[in-house]
Amino acid sequence: MTLPGPEPPAMSFRGSTRPVPFSGSAHRAFEDACRSMGLDPSNVWVGGYVDYQWNHLGPILDAYRIDLRNREVLEFGCNVGASAIVLAHLGARVHAIDVSSRLVALARANAERYGAASIEFLCVRDTRSLPFDTHRFDLVYCGSVLEYIESSHRVAVQREIDRIVRPGGIILIGGTSSRLWPREIHSGKWLVNYLPRAIDRVWGASRARGISPLAVRYGFGRHYDNLDAKTRGRAFLESRLRMNSSPLAVRLLVSLAARLGVGPGLLAHSISCVLVKRV
Fold first, then answer.
1. How many CB atoms lie within 10 A of CB 196?
2. How confident is the model at residue 201 (pLDDT cuts 50, 70, 90)?
């Protein structure tokens, strides 16, 4: 799917070259910043995260025909900046925010080693109020972040994201832990998704939990269409096969979702969906 606007020549992710670090000094500065935070720069979720997102976010954008060149894009919850770097590499004008000032600084250092200095990184402590104009963005990407928002704040945050997405724009959700599944994907803990949050007071610590697929699908408002449901999972299937997911498992998921009339990404252990804001 191409975002509305002037029609550029067709662009295929398959024909793009992956981003690579180009500056030795910036690379060393990033590694030093990682170590100062107690992080291993060789870890796939730190120094290798750009490659991971190129291999996972890239096929999703391509399968849904989302052309980001010269579009206004926000990464909500940028972590080490990997997704923002991929989005900028594909031609988007990227803003990226996180609640952690240390992660924002690390993401900025990561972007510098990839030559993506045009990305605007910003620390936003309270995401219930975002420092952007209404209808500012063509696309907002939320990757593995919604489940970390304090549950009492989540509705307000999702409605604030809705405010900054323009009519016809997209909210892209990916990598979000589902509370339907018995094993929480980030922590690897079994059955914690099914336990009430009140029990955390007994443990004396907050445990990671997934989020309800319905909260993802409708939390931004009911004026969004889910492309997965409208296309009966065709783009979902294409993107997952290109990520080397199990063909049998993906096809069964798509078939089940079609029978239920929902997007297959809402049934997966890692929730994903492409929500388009109605004009």
1. 7
2. confident
